[in-house]
Here is the input.
Amino acid sequence: MQNAFIHVSYLELFTVTFLLGLGGAISPGALLTYTIFCAIKEKKQAFSVGIKISLGHASIEIFLILLLLVGFVNWMDNRIILIVIGIFGGILLICFGMIILANIINNKVDTTFLESNTSIENKDFQNNKDSKPYLASMGFLMSNPYWWLWWITIGVSIMVDNGVIWGNWISLIIFIFAKELGAILWYIGIATAVGFAHKLMKKNVYLAILGICGLFMVIYGFYLGISPFFNL
Here is the structure.
């Protein structure tokens, strides 16, 4: 088997995976809201909440990555499948990035969690106040259809394009580490900030980080969509 898609450096693989992973983690959603809720409830123990949520997030994604790798055995020699994966994943990544950028431009990004954390306590998470953050984070991910869509399209495209396969252990380790590092830094940082200081970052800083990730999604999406044709 020829690993025709291994054409990027380890630093490039780390950078691409980290930024895309961070972009997904910082986007407003149920898991982020749940993290803030738990941090408010635990106060000085909020740091441990961030760790548990990050570990749950990493556990389910690593398990999914291993499942995806099993399917790669029969895919890597089929050029048509690789091209379809690259194009579809690239298009979806561009769409995600454009939606983020459009929401920022039109001031439609939900940043209420940055302005006040007291309103979080009125949400439905009160019904799950005794749930375990580790298991809850896994549940939130698996119940999110966009998470599944991201992995079976964009996630697979990134893995194929960067040669993340069985046997290429360095790339596999870098991919997993970079993908989870963004989520770990974000969720631990958010939980700690809420628990100890009861405040997060400024709105403009958050939107700037989100905008950079969104722009990177668009740029890398174009690359991902055309890269398979360079290896024909």
User: Anything to note?
Assistant: Confidence is low (pLDDT under 50) at residues 1-7. The two ends are 15 Å apart (CA to CA). The chain is about 70% helix and 0% strand.
